[in-house]
Amino acid sequence: MSKSPEQRYFSVIGNPIQHSKSPAIHAMFGEQTGVDLCYVAIESQPEDFVATIADFQRAGGQGMNVTVPFKEHAWRLADEHSERARHARAVNTLKLEGNRIYGDNTDGVGLVADLENNLGRNLADAKVLLLGAGGAVRGVIAPLLDAGVRSLTLANRTSQKAVALAASFRSLGDIGGGGYSDLPDTAFDIIINGTAASLSGDVPPVPTSVFGDQTLAYDMMYGDRPTVFMEWASASGAASVSDGLGMLVEQAAESFFVWNGVRPETRPVIQTLRRSRG
Ligand code: ATR
Q1: Nearest residue CA, atom 14 of ligand 1?
Q2: Are 75 and 118 in the same domain?
Q3: Is the separation of the CB atoms in 82 and 103 below 8 Å?
Q4: Within this chain, do residues 113 and 237 fall inside the same structural domain, yes or no?
Q5: DSSP secondary structure string, 228-251?
Q6: Residue 198: what pLDDT?
């Protein structure tokens, strides 16, 4: 895609990147809000990450989304960080301002917006179970606690990682961590899968007692079909399930706002993407 001189210029950087939905999402946001933009996908090797961003900045780039595996690289590269990026220690949104780079993280607010606005879940007072203790989970902890959840429980295959991660956020709210076998024998309101288990077709070994007749099981991943976690959660007694497509669109909308100062409507974009995958 070639950019005309008057267009605002954005991109997403990752590896792999060819299946990214971000260019389509931002093109829809641009049309909807009247922001004339060009948004491209850029694949980079880890050793070229810094040079690729500098090239994009020289070419007039104003903002970038950052996806796997570069969110921590972007955190290290940014000259200045938002508070939510500092909590996540990862950056998914770069604002390129002259030769300064501002790093933000919109993943967590994207998840909260999807749960509350699209899926109709009231987070205030919810008992939430978060599976995993890697980068994806770290990025959503502070926004979930900020949303007023009653309790946040982290469970991870390597239990010490969940214990340490929970300890590092204790000042922000009621949070605890442990292994899957430490989970209480009671149901949670919302269970969020932030592990990479689905990539190998696995589900985390969670006891089925965590599913109750109100439980939403949410997978931060998405694909053309329901994920293995969603199928397993439905079969294990979850009342409802969702993939992370809404989170993807919501985090994109927040990035769009950071760059353009305009907040696009997410619902029609989510509907279009769901329709196009059949
Ligand atoms: P990301 O940045 O995407 O979160 P990561 O930092 O590599 O990636 O973390 C991957 C997470 O998925 C970890 O919580 C990992 O558990 P461990 O800390 O015990 O490694 C979890 N994970 C990966 N494969 C898994 C599997 N097959 N079953 C359960 N958890 C798994």
Answers
A1: 132
A2: no
A3: yes
A4: yes
A5: HHHHHHHHTT-SEEE-SHHHHHHH
A6: 84
The C-alpha torsion from 55 through 6 and 256 to 268, rounded to 10°, is -130
- Per-residue CA distances from 107 to 1, 35, 124 (Å): 27, 22, 19
| Number of domains into which the chain is organized | 2
What 3-state DSSP class applies to 131? strand
Neighbours of 142 (CB within 10 A): 21
Residue 27 has what pLDDT?
98
Single pTM value for the model: 0.96
**Ligand 1, atom nearest to 135 Cα:** 2
Rounded Cα distance between 153 and 130, Å, is 6
- Say whether both 47 and 121 belong to one domain: no
Q: What are the CA-CA distances from residue 127 to residues 44, 79, 184, 188, 270 (Å)?
A: 39, 36, 12, 5, 27
Of all protein residues, the one whose alpha carbon is nearest to atom 7 of ligand 1 is 134
Do 149 and 219 reside in the same domain of the chain?
yes
* Sheet containing strand 100-104, strands side by side: 37-43, 8-14, 63-66, 93-97, 100-104, 80-81
Q: What is the CA(229)–ligand 1 centre distance, in A?
A: 14
Instruction: Please answer whether residues 152 and 141 qualify as being in contact, where contact means their C-beta atoms are separated by less than 8 angstroms.
Output: yes
Residues 14 and 32 in one domain: yes
pLDDT tens-place string over residues 164-204: 999 999 999 999 999 999 999 999 999 999 999 988 889 99
Report which DSSP code applies to 20: -
Task: Specify whether 71 is catalytic.
Answer: yes
Ligand 1 nearest atom to the CA of residue 195, by list position: 12
Query: Which residue stretches of the chain have pLDDT < 70?
Result: 1, 278
Lookup result for tokens 């990026």: 85
Question: Residue 69: how many CA atoms within 13 Å on its side-chain side?
Answer: 7
Q: Do 144 and 130 form a contact (C-beta atoms < 8 A)?
A: yes
